[in-house]
């Protein structure tokens, strides 16, 4: 695994801000030669610290104008029930994040869809049909003043 140090931390910060930065610019920003910088980035990739690069897409360009965080409680807490729920969420394109969490509910979802009507369909036809779902609380996102994913 790549060692954690101040330079690697700066490399990761810069790549988080702009994954398409050139190696030359990255090296300049972190104070390394281009060859040393490239070796470090390659080691961060090889060791699994950097797991990939992706495009950040404006949600409305994909027709997404509605986002909600959804807390889901299950009536049965068995491993089989959780696996069944997780498989159902993996098949639902509206669910962009699914987290198994601690507390009074089992799951927190981030759901993105076109509008409130599409969300209601997801709520009724997807969540409402998964066995053992006994509590659904929706938190509609009105704005995101800080979102490092975008």
Give the tags.
150 residues; alpha+beta; Arc Repressor Mutant, subunit A; Alpha-Beta Plaits; 2 domains; 20% strand
Secondary structure layout:
Elements: H1 6-17, H2 23-30, H3 34-46, E1 66-74, H4 79-91, E2 95-100, E3 107-113, H5 116-125, E4 133-140
Antiparallel strand pairs: 1-3, 1-4, 2-3
Helix pairs in contact: 1-2, 2-3
Structure overview:
By secondary structure, this protein is an alpha+beta fold. Helix content is 37%, strand content 20%. Strands 2-3-1-4 form a 4-stranded antiparallel sheet. The radius of gyration is 20 Å and the shape is elongated. The two termini are 28 Å apart.
| Main beta sheet strand tally, sense and closure | 4 strands, antiparallel
Beta-strand segment tally: 4
Task: Quickly give the CATH architecture of the largest domain.
Answer: 2-Layer Sandwich
Helix content: 25-40%
**What percent of residues are in strands?**
15-25%
Per CATH, the class of the largest domain reads Alpha Beta
């Amino acid at each position: 695994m790549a060692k954690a140090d101040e330079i690697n931390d700066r490399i990761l910060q810069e790549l988080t801000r702009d994954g398409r930065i050139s190696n030359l610019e990255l090296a300049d920003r972190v104070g390394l030669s281009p060859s040393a910088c490239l070796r470090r980035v390659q080691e961060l990739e090889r060791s699994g610290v950097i797991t990939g690069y992706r495009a950040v897409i404006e949600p409305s360009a994909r027709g997404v104008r509605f986002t909600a965080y959804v807390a889901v409680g299950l009536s049965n807490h068995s491993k089989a029930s959780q696996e069944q729920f997780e498989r159902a969420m993996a098949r639902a394109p509206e669910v962009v994040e699914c987290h198994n969490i601690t507390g009074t509910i089992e799951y927190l979802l981030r759901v993105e869809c076109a509008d409130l009507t599409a969300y209601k369909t997801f709520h009724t036809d997807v969540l409402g049909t998964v066995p053992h779902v006994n509590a659904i609380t929706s938190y509609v996102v009105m704005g995101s003043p800080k979102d490092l994913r975008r």
